[in-house]
Amino acid sequence: AQSVAQPEDQVNVAEGNPLTVKCTYSVSGNPYLFWYVQYPNRGLQFLLKYITGDNLVKGSYGFEAEFNKSQTSFHLKKPSALVSDSALYFCAVRDSPFGSARQLTFGSGTQLTVLP
Amino acid sequence: DTEVTQTPKHLVMGMTNKKSLKCEQHMGHRAMYWYKQKAKKPPELMFVYSYEKLSINESVPSRFSPECPNSSLLNLHLHALQPEDSALYLCASSHPNGGLAAPYEQYFGPGTRLTVT
User: Fold this and answer.
1) pLDDT class of A99 with cuts at 50, 70, 90
2) Which of A3, A33, A104, B52 has its C-alpha lying 20 to 30 A from A94's C-alpha?
3) What distances in angstroms separate CA B58 from CA A7, A18, A73, B10, B61, one per listed residue?
4) A39 exposure class (CB count in 10 Å sphere: 0-12, 13-18, 19+)
C-alpha cells in the first residue's frame, strides 16, 4: 500500500521569507513523488516531480523539493515567498511498477498563506 | 500547449436532470482522468481512460457515466444525481502509464463546479 501525509493543514509565512511545505510518504517499492498547486477555483497545476537521481528537484515558479530517503520525506521549498504563492499545495506519491497501486495517492493538502 | 479545457465552468442541475461535462486536450496524451474534489480536500479519482478504453472505475455509482469518443475528448454524463454529488469535477490528462516506466505527471483542467439541487 502507498500513502502520503502532509502534517500541516495551514502554513503561514511572511513575504520574502523562505517557505517549506512538508510531505512524508510510505511505499513498498521505490517512490515516485509529485507536488501540485491549486489556486482558488482552479484545477491543479504540476510543480515538480522526483523519479530518480539528484535528491534536489527544481520545478516551476522557483520551487524546489528535497527527496530524503532515510526520512521518507519530500518537502517543498522556496527561498523567498511571494504573496502570489498563496494557494493549496498537494503532495502525491506513486509506488514503483512493482507495487500494487495503479494510480497517484494525494496527501490531504496544505494551505499556504504568504503575508505581505 | 499544455492546456486542458473543461465546459461548462459552472453547472446547476436538479436531481432528475441529465447533463454532460466535457473535457478536451490537444497534447497528444492517451490517458485521461475524471476526479471529484470537495472543498479543501484532495481530488478523488473516479475514472481512467487509457487509449480510449476505460481502464479504471473506482466503484463510482452508475449515475455517473464516462465516455471517451476519441483521443482528445472525454465526457462525463450525469443522471439522477444526489445533492452530495455537488463538487468540483476535474479532468486531467497524461501520457499513459504502464509497464516499468515511471509515471507521468498529469495536467488538469480548471474544473466544472457542479451544484445539485
Assistant:
1) very low
2) B52
3) 26, 39, 28, 24, 9
4) middle
Average per-residue pLDDT for chain B: 92
**What single-letter amino acid sits at A103?**
Q
From chain A, the residues in CB contact with B113 under 8 A are: 41
Nearest to B80 by CA among B29, B17, B4: B17
C-alpha to C-alpha distances, B1 to A28, A47, B4, nearest whole angstrom: 35, 16, 9
Query: How far is Cα of residue B91 from the mean position of the Cα atoms in its chain?
Result: 4
B95 pLDDT tier (thresholds 50, 70, 90): confident
SS3 B91: strand
Identify the bridge partners of residue A62 per DSSP, sorted by sequence position.
none
Pairwise pLDDT comparison (B10 vs A51), residue with the higher score = B10
CA A45-A48-A49 angle, 5° bins: 125
SS3 (DSSP) at B101: coil
The residue of chain B nearest to residue A52, with distances taken between CA atoms, is B102
Asked whether the beta carbons of B86 and B116 are under 8 A apart, the reply is yes
Chain A residues within 8 A of B111 when measuring between CB atoms: 41-43
Q: Which of A34, A102, A107 sits opposite B42 (nearest CB)?
A: A107
